[in-house]
Amino acid sequence: QVELGEAGGGGGEPGGALWVSCSGRGFQLAPYYAGWFRPTPGKDREAVGCISRGGDFTDYAPPMEERFTISRDNAKNTLYLQMNNLNAEDTALYYCAVSGSSTGGCAFFGMKHWGQGIQVTVSS
Question: 104 pLDDT exceeds 80?
Answer without folding.
Answer: no
